[in-house]
Design brief:
Length: 158
């Protein structure tokens, strides 16, 4: 597994929350993207981020929380059904998943179940991020690129 550690700054995002199975989170994106696009918020250097609050192996499917997020600047204000939050910065372990989103679970297993225990680092109690690197409208499912990012606790000083 090719994993790396990167330090992210805090990221201010506009978001729509989905509650239910991760496989059905497309509705949140369909609610968020057309509205932000019509207002010009999708131009420039924005990131599309999925904020994954729950482990579907532990949380009942009907209670899984996912936020469809787009980075925004401080001038963005809440709108009907679109909230604002700050994704905490800090160290993240990152592995790039290639292929359909329906198969990201295997990348999480490799990153958290195999790489993390050998890294000497521990998880931080915050949601994981999925940073979508290409556009599903113009990319085949097999060629989708997604950075799976798990938050790491600060290292302990000896």
């Amino acid at each position: 597994m090719n994993a790396r550690i990167e330090r992210f700054p805090d990221m201010r995002v506009a978001f729509v929350r989905h509650v239910g199975p991760y496989a059905a989170c497309g509705d949140a994106w369909e609610s968020l993207l057309p509205r932000l696009g019509a207002e010009g918020w999708l131009a420039g250097d924005v990131r599309m981020i999925g904020l994954c609050w729950d482990d579907p192996e532990v949380t009942a499917p009907a209670q899984v929380r996912y936020d469809a997020c787009v980075t925004v600047d401080p001038s963005f204000t809440e709108r009907d059904g679109i909230g604002i939050q700050t994704i905490a910065g800090g160290d993240y372990a990152i592995a790039t998943h290639t292929g359909p989103w329906s198969e990201v679970g295997r990348t999480y297993v490799d990153l958290v179940g195999r790489w993390l225990p050998q890294s000497g680092r521990e998880l931080r109690g915050e949601p994981s991020l999925e940073i979508y690197l290409n556009d599903p409208a113009s990319t085949s499912a097999e060629d989708l690129l997604t950075d799976i990012c798990v938050p790491l606790a600060p290292t302990r000083r000896a």
